Amino acid sequence: MYTLQVTEHYENPRNVGTIVDADGTASVGSPVDGEMIKLTLKITDDVIVAAKFRAFGCPTAIASASILTELITGTHIPDALEITAVQLSDALGGLPLDKQRYANTAEKTLKMAIANFLSKKEG
Fold first, then answer.
1. Are the C-beta atoms of residues 58 and 101 closer than 8 Å to each other?
2. How would residue 30 be classed by pLDDT, with cut points 50, 70 and 90?
3. E strand residue ranges, 9-118
4. I want to staple 36 with a disulfide (CB 3.0 to 4.6 A). Which of 9, 56, 59, 75 is the partner?
5. Domain limits at 73?
6. How far apart are CA 84 and CA 112, in angstroms?
7. How far is CA 11 from the centre of its chain?
């Protein structure tokens, strides 16, 4: 059912944890609902230098968050904002339609974490 990429990121997730002094944070979903992704970012000169996640849900939720952190690390903010759920799904070898919502959640979490960073920067 799962692609090799989903299985690899589920069994060996990258960048699990929380950045204590994060510059941007976001959490989407709830364990009560069966899925949640929390993302913390460290940003220097508008470049994401570190990204960590915590996820609750099925293997696809964990894999989506894991691949997200790999794709955004080292990326400038404007480029990170261009990352889509479709790109996350493609990087995982393609997600079935009934699992696409996890890539959507990862994308939404990223955009909210960047918005959180930008609001602090402007404030």
1. no
2. confident
3. 24-30, 35-44, 47-56
4. 56
5. 4-122
6. 13
7. 17
Tell me how far the alpha carbon of residue 117 is from its chain's centroid. Answer: 15
Query: Residue 38 contacts by C-beta under 8 Å, 6 or more apart in sequence?
Result: 18, 25, 26, 27, 53, 54, 55, 109
Average pLDDT over the chain, rounded to an integer: 95
What are 33-66's pLDDT values in tens digits? 778 999 999 999 999 999 999 999 889 999 999 9
Read off the CATH number of the domain in which 57 is found: 3.90.1010.10
Please name the amino acid found at residue 25: T
CA dist., res. 34 & res. 122, Å (int): 34
For residue 29, report the phi and psi dihedrals to the nearest 5 degrees: 95, -175
Q: Is the pLDDT of residue 123 over 90?
A: no
Binned at pLDDT 50, 70 and 90, residue 19 comes out as: very high
Please report the sign of the dihedral spanned by the C-alpha atoms of residue 80, residue 82, residue 84, residue 87. negative
Q: How many domains does the chain have?
A: 1
Residues 7 and 20: their CA atoms lie apart, in Å, by 28
